[in-house]
Amino acid sequence: MTNRAAATPSMTHIAVIIYNRYNNLKHWLECWDKCDQSAGQVVIIHNADEPDQRYPDLCKEHGVQYIQRKNIGFDVGAFQDVCAGRLAGFPKWERLLWMTDDTFPMSLYFVKQFNDAMRPGVGVACMEISRYVTRHIRTTGFMIDRVTAEKLIFP
User: How many CB atoms lie within 10 A of CB 84?
Assistant: First the structure.
């Protein structure tokens, strides 16, 4: 069900934060390849202090953007970098869907589900996207619009 779309600022950017869990990334991208991709563009943000060529190579195989950053502040640090516009290479965005590498796409249309929740007046949407919730398994992410993200204050 691949519908790779050209990135535009109005498109939803899906940031997937990964650590040194190659198999999670591999599985995530295999899931993404089965999803409707017309509503979003994936950007993999790899929190890693040392480069590992397997990660960018795998992203290239799947046609998604890869950015490595020092693992400073974990996923919250990466989120601050994106919101502040200081993560080199991250595209201009209007809507951001934020997920970690163990939050796998649970629906072929998960991006559309989040986009539909972002009605006028909604700055952040977070929802359960799987009927099957197991302890310690993340099955959601959150979407934030740029206007709301610019109002966030980080210490």
Answer: 12
Backbone angles phi, psi at 14, to 5 degrees: -105, 105
User: Measured between alpha carbons, how far is 47 from 28 in angstroms, rounded to an integer?
Assistant: 16
Residue 30 phi/psi, 5-degree rounding, is -65, -40
* 78 token code pair: 């990466």
Amino acid in the structure at residue 132: Y
Kindly report, residue by residue over 4-53, the tens digit of the pLDDT.
444 444 679 999 999 999 999 999 999 999 999 988 999 999 999 999 99
In the predicted model, what is the mean pLDDT of residues 89-103?
92
The torsion angles phi and psi of 111, rounded to 5 degrees, stand at -65, -45
Q: How many CB atoms lie within 10 A of CB 36?
A: 17
Q: Which residue has the tokens 């991709």?
A: 37
Type of residue found at 94: E
Average pLDDT, the chain: 87
| Amino acid making up residue 85 | G
The pairing of beta strand 65-69 with beta strand 40-47:
parallel
Task: Give DSSP secondary structure letters for 91-149.
Answer: PP-SEEEEEETT----STTHHHHHHHH--TT--EEE----S---TT-----EEEEHHHH
